[in-house]
Amino acid sequence: MLPTNIRRLRRLRATSAIRDLLQQNHLRAEQLVFPLFVHEKEHSEAIPQLPGHKRLSLTDAITLAKECLELGIKAFAIFPVVPSAKKDERGSYALQPKAMIYNVLSTFRAQLPQAVLIADVALDPYTTHGHDGIWNPQLNDVDNDATVEVLQNMAVLLARAGAHFVAPSDMMDGRIMAIRTALDQANLQHTGIISYAAKFASCYYGPFRHAIGAGTPDCPQHSTSIDKRTYQLNPANCREAVLECLEDAAEGADVLLVKPAGHYLDIIYQVKQRTLLPVAAYQVSAEFAAICSAAEKGWLDKNLAAVETLLSIRRAGADMIFTYFAKDVAKLLLSQ
Ligand code: PBG
After folding, report:
1. What is the DSSP pairing of strand 54-56 with strand 165-168?
2. What average pLDDT score do residues 202-229 get?
3. Predicted pLDDT at 245
4. In this structure, is residue 1 part of a structural domain?
5. What share of the chain has pLDDT > 90, as a percent?
6. Which residues are catalytic?
7. Where are the alpha helices (DSSP H) in the chain?
8. pLDDT confidence of 190, banded at 50, 70, 90?
9. pLDDT > 90? residue 65
10. Who contacts 65 (Cβ-Cβ below 8 Å, separation ≥6)?
């Protein structure tokens, strides 16, 4: 090693142009996926837990997506907000071809043909208890295999409605192969699967659950801190998360997703080392909300925090990132 008076690494940081020249990771709008919440009402309403985001009417969702496309964002993850009256224990409404999400997807597909549409596959918007699967009171747990059957049918409906990717976020065992088989049998070979492969039982999903109105207020099991630990991963475990990813890759996933992102950079890194598939990460609702509320207090700069956290997620190895900052960051990138 050279003595420190000869090796001066700070030479590489001396000017803004030199720093730009040597920057190793970048953010681009086209790597970002913008989550959108769409409800059945004619007017959009603010989501207090997700500052700047709304439960959108279909018309407003299309307008917003158009603006995003102009900023270079190409992909949207669309989540339905389902009225309590349409929810039941089994999430049956998810398989009604008339359910709003199918109309939303086909309208997006027709009006924004250049957009990439990602549709979530899980029952939580549709169940009274807010679990991602069918609840079996005898087991006191979700019924894995019964849920997978419903998800297969749901994935086919979502693909037929126009989703380019279905994104199972439910963490049931065996669902990737089951969904791939169902899509292929329905002649939907071109629809991809973004698997929420390493999804942790995190406390960082609260604002999302408020946004979709998870469960129904009168359901005794329901709360935004609903316990999903029998299917989502233990935040203490890394090897188990990598194993989930390898399993989903073997079952036919096209993209592997790690969620949350910012506190799970080691998982993103390790998955990236072990697969040649694209890796996605989801900077989830409370990662976003925590930054927003600290910024509101004047404790950090929101834009800088957005860019720093997203760059860290890229540095760890994510090829694409789902983030509520997508639009803000895309604007920022254009202004630079
Ligand atoms: C559930 C789902 C969740 C999120 C995306 N899909 C919440 C959960 O698992 O309870 C959370 C995303 C976020 O917090 O931004 N299928």
Report:
1. unpaired
2. 83
3. 98
4. no
5. 93
6. 199, 259
7. 16-21, 58-70, 100-111, 144-161, 175-185, 206-212, 239-251, 265-274, 285-296, 302-316, 326-335
8. very high
9. yes
10. 34, 36, 76, 108, 112, 115
Decide: 284 in ligand 1 pocket, CB within 6 A: yes
**CB burial string 121-144: b at 16+ within 10 A, e below:** bbbbbbbbbbbbbbbeeeeeebbb
Give me the pLDDT at residue 51, please: 97
Q: Is the CB of 169 under 6 A from ligand 1?
A: yes
Q: Is 122 in the pocket of ligand 1 (CB under 6 A)?
A: yes
For 57, the 3-state DSSP assignment is coil
For the segment 178-182, the average pLDDT, to the nearest whole number, is 98
Residue 82 Cα to ligand 1 midpoint, Å, equals 15
Substitution site in 81, 169, 229 for ligand 1 pocket (most atoms within 8 Å of beta carbon): 169
- Average pLDDT (218-230) is 75
Which tens digits make up the pLDDT trace of 123-170? 999 999 999 999 998 999 999 999 999 999 999 999 999 999 999 999
Instruction: Tell me whether residue 294 is in a domain.
Output: yes
Asked whether 132 lines ligand 1 (CB < 6 A), one says yes
Is the residue at 9 inside a domain? no
The number of folded domains in the chain is 1
Structural domain including 237 reads: 27-335
- Write the Ramachandran bin of 174: left for phi over 0, alpha for psi from -120 to 50, otherwise beta: left
Ligand 1 pocket test target in 158, 208, 263 with most atoms within 8 Å of CB: 208
CATH number where 247 lies? 3.20.20.70
